[in-house]
Design a protein that fits this description.
Elements (H helix, E strand, L loop, with lengths): L17 H10 L5 H33 L1 H12 L6 H4 L5 H22 L4
Helix pairs in contact: 2-3
Length: 119
């Protein structure tokens, strides 16, 4: 059976400085503060998304107008900036990592198949 109910919203502990909490209490009625904060965060995140999309579109337009920039961008994308994890983390155990990762993936797949058997 498909689970058609959306997951419940996540509860988050938010600590506000006293002056900000006092301003919030004065400006927003008690039973509307959660919605106010959710709307505020959502608006800011949507604005940030819009700004990132605009930046990507501007860069795409620049690269279309100046192919040399596209070549430079591709060089950055192809660059190996950090090197192999084996080089910068001498304690890294690839075998253990691969084994534990495979176990976690199998557990996740089993959980998903039992919670949503028709998928």
């Amino acid at each position: 059976m498909l689970n058609l109910h959306p997951p419940p919203p996540k509860q988050v502990l938010l600590r506000l400085p006293d002056d900000v909490a006092a301003k919030l209490a004065r400006a927003v009625p008690p039973r509307q503060r959660n919605k106010y904060l959710v709307d505020l965060v959502r608006r800011e995140l949507e604005q940030e998304d819009a700004e990132l999309v605009a930046a990507c579109e501007a860069m795409n337009a620049l690269e279309a107008a100046h192919p040399e920039l596209l070549v430079e961008s591709q060089e950055w994308l192809d660059a190996d900036l950090t090197g192999s994890v084996d080089d910068w983390d001498p304690d890294f155990d690839r075998e253990t990592f691969e084994r534990e990762f495979a176990m976690a993936q199998a557990k996740l797949a089993a959980t998903q198949s039992t919670s949503n058997p028709r998928k």
